[in-house]
Design goal:
- By secondary structure, the protein is mainly alpha-helical.
- It has one domain (12-18, 25-258).
- It has helices at 34-44, 52-57, 60-79, 83-97, 111-116, 123-199, 204-258.
- The chain is rod-shaped and about 115 Å long.
- Mean pLDDT is 76; it is low at 1-26.
Length: 259
């Protein structure tokens, strides 16, 4: 199993993504790898200034997949009832405790006492009862082995879900950084150019372009915030997956030690 380390602490993108202030995150490009920066630049080009419809679609596929994934995780949790496994283990322990090996001890008490003791069962009765218990134990053991197989499969499935969740986390992080990069570019380059042009012109349309660009930047900021919320969901999902895995692993180990 994967070591129990915080998903957030172990993630390489957390150095430059702050979850404390979701709407006010500063990009630290020096912490990006060359490959990551290339990805960010490519994603950033998907954002076209003043294309409000395109901005609305930016990262929406990821959010939709993340939503479907969350429902899948919820179904996975709700469909698993580990109660019967515990009941089966308890049943096994109960059957094993019901067998008293001392009843087979023919050395004591004395022959006379065994004959007249109504509380004692005959040797044949004891063997018959032990055979019955043995058959029940075998049946319970088979059930536990099936449970163990299912638990092992679930653990592997949860590993896959964990990796899938981490991929969403990575992709959302890169989209957030790309959007922040575009926002800085518009604020530091495009908007000042339009403002200067409007100041030097008497054309009302130039003034409107400044207002349109400012509104687009505001919408971009809100889009970044929405993506950060989705990223937070991925961040919170990771320990939940590990928690379910740990429960399954503990049960699988308990079954192994019991059979």
């Amino acid at each position: 199993m994967t070591e129990n380390k915080s998903f957030k602490e172990s993630h390489p993108l957390d150095d430059f993504i702050s979850d404390k202030e979701l709407s006010n995150t500063t990009i630290q490009k020096e912490k990006l790898t060359i490959e990551q920066q290339k990805q960010v630049d490519t994603i950033s080009k998907q954002i076209n200034p003043l294309d409000n419809e395109g901005l609305l679609a930016f990262g929406s596929d990821l959010q939709k997949q993340m939503s479907q994934f969350s429902h899948q995780m919820l179904d996975e949790v709700q469909s698993k009832d580990v109660g019967p496994i515990g009941d089966t283990l308890s049943d096994l322990m109960s059957k094993l405790k019901s067998v008293n090996p001392n009843e087979l001890n023919t050395d004591k008490p004395s022959m006379l006492k065994r004959i007249f003791s109504r509380a004692k069962s005959s040797i044949n009765e004891i063997f018959s009862r032990m055979q019955s218990v043995s058959a029940q134990v075998d049946r319970i053991t088979i059930q536990l082995q099936k449970h163990q197989t299912h638990l092992t499969r679930d653990i592997e499935l949860l590993d896959t879900l964990y990796d899938k969740n981490k991929q969403y986390f990575d992709d959302l992080s890169l989209h957030i950084i790309a959007a922040q990069q575009k926002k800085l570019q518009l604020e530091n380059e495009k908007l000042p150019q339009l403002q200067q042009q409007a100041q030097q012109s008497t054309n009302q349309m130039d003034i409107q372009q400044v207002a349109d660009m400012q509104q687009f930047i505001d919408r971009l900021d809100k889009r970044i915030y929405d993506l950060q919320l989705s990223r937070q969901i991925a961040l919170q999902t990771a320990p939940q997956i590990r928690m379910i895995q740990n429960v399954n692993q503990a049960l699988a180990e308990k079954i192994q030690s019991s059979i």
